[in-house]
From TrEMBL:
Gene3D superfamilies: Aldolase class I. It comes from Coprococcus hominis (ex Liu et al. 2022). Its cofactor is Zn(2+); Co(2+); a divalent metal cation; Mn(2+). Pathway: Carbohydrate degradation. This is Ribulose-phosphate 3-epimerase. The active site is at 34 (proton acceptor), 174 (proton donor). One of its GO terms (biological process) is pentose catabolic process. Catalyzes the reversible epimerization of D-ribulose 5-phosphate to D-xylulose 5-phosphate. It is an enzyme of class 5 (isomerase). Keywords: Carbohydrate metabolism, Cobalt, Isomerase, Manganese, Metal-binding, Zinc. A divalent metal cation binds at residues 32, 34, 65, 174.
């Protein structure tokens, strides 16, 4: 099933709760929350206290994308603030296997994100343990960037690898996803689509509806 995960990085932070309610009521399946530490990525966004404060306004899946060094140090905080899925970057973890296990021990779903230059092979020995693979289609740190074309081949290869092992793991794509390119991203094998500026710029409800219209034409 195809799922839309609007990234609140492009929301109005002064009205974050209202913006989340709007995309929830428009039918978004997930809410994507981008946590940035100013070290792993050259930007700082928000952390667990902000997520905790907006958790009561939506029952949707809170899909937390941690762009922070050594996220294993903070997993309990993300459990406590109500995260459902926690995605860590392979590049940010000294012990990726241990970090995935710790997320699952806390009762959350575990995602692993790969930067555009990171090969798929880093997932070889953890593939069976991961609930979601996040293919970054921009270099992480900022919203509103352009989709990197080589990401399409990476998505295709990720789906082929999963198929070859009999796995139906979710493939999430994040960065530069728009109404114009989402169909080919799905055709390549992605099923969880993050969109920040393409949802929050303009009419949020119409944008969510437009993504879902494309989804219904494909599935
Ligand atoms: O993880 C991210 C940036 O690091 C964001 O989720 C992503 O950039 C979404 O924004 P947009 O759809 O505007 O590219
Ligand atoms: Co993200």
């Amino acid at each position: 099933m195809l799922k839309l995960s609007p990234s609140v990085l492009s929301a109005d932070f002064g009205h974050l709760a209202e913006d989340i309610q709007i995309i929830d009521q428009a039918g978004s399946e997930y809410i994507h929350l981008d946590v940035m530490d100013g070290s792993f990525v050259p930007n700082i966004s928000f952390g667990a206290p902000v997520i905790k404060s907006v958790r009561p306004v939506s029952d949707k899946v809170f899909d937390v994308h941690l762009m922070i060094d050594e996220p294993v140090r903070f997993l309990q905080d993300y459990k406590n603030c109500g995260a459902d899925i926690v995605t860590v970057h392979a590049e940010a973890c000294k012990h990726l296997h241990r970090t995935i296990a710790a997320i699952k021990e806390l009762g959350m779903k575990a995602g692993v994100a790969l930067n555009p230059a990171t090969p798929l092979s880093v997932l070889d020995y953890v593939l069976e343990d991961v609930d979601m693979i996040l293919i970054m289609s921009v270099n992480p740190g900022f919203g509103g960037q352009k989709f990197i074309p080589s990401s399409l081949r990476k998505i295709t290869e990720t789906r082929a690898l999963l198929n070859s092992r009999g796995l139906q793991t979710d493939i999430q794509v994040d960065g530069g996803v728009t109404l114009s390119n989402v169909a080919e991203i799905i055709q390549a094998g992605a099923n969880v689509l993050v969109a920040g500026s393409a949802v929050f710029k303009g009419d949020k409800v119409e944008n969510v509806k437009a993504f879902h219209k494309i989804f219904s034409e494909i599935q």
